[in-house]
Amino acid sequence: MPFKKLHSEIKEKLAELEISTPTLFQTKSIPVIKSGANVFCAAPLGSGKSTSLILTTMHKLKCEEVGTAPRAVVLVANNERAAELNDAFFKFTRHTSLRVYACDDKQHIDLLKSEIFEGVDILILTPKTMNKLLLLEGVNTTQLKIFSIDDASFLADNASYTALMAITQSIHKCQYVIYSEKIDPLLKRFESYFMQYAKKIVIK
């Protein structure tokens, strides 16, 4: 049971939320993500991908705040998804010291920089905003442990794809996890760049 080997604070929260049985996708994906490998995760809508992303991110960061630089980044398609994922994270992190921050594209970049500078553990944002922050030295990636891409279908957009390629070139060492409904040729291309030796979890 993959839930049994998660951090004790996560197990307490799962019990509180009455989540006791992992989905098939969670059973297969959580141990592989926990191993530290780069992973392509493909499964249909409703398979539990978002919860897997949240649980494995919290486990990786040991459910506690450390320093000021982000240790986890989650790339999303847009502001609406950033807000949704932020709310989903909050259900699990509110009794931990983990600091989750979702960037709002509509806010001025200087405001985002100052908010991140205050200290963030998990940063949720679009590729465009992440790239802009990197260009302006508004986010420090030296402490990054895990970099997740939520529902990667949005990378079919050329601007998002280009921004992602620029972002990954500025990150030296990190685990990458890509979530999608299927592993299409666009995603397979990443194996030549930042997804070397990636494992694949596919549920149909």
TrEMBL record:
Keywords: ATP-binding, Helicase, Hydrolase, Nucleotide-binding. InterPro entries: DEAD/DEAH_box_helicase_dom (IPR011545), Helicase_ATP-bd (IPR014001), P-loop_NTPase (IPR027417). GO terms for molecular function: helicase activity. It comes from the Bacteria. The keyword Metal-binding does not apply. Pfam families: DEAD (PF00270). The keyword ATP-binding applies. Residues 30-201 form the Helicase ATP-binding domain. SMART domains: DEXDc. PANTHER family: DEAD-BOX ATP-DEPENDENT RNA HELICASE 50. This is DEAD/DEAH box helicase.
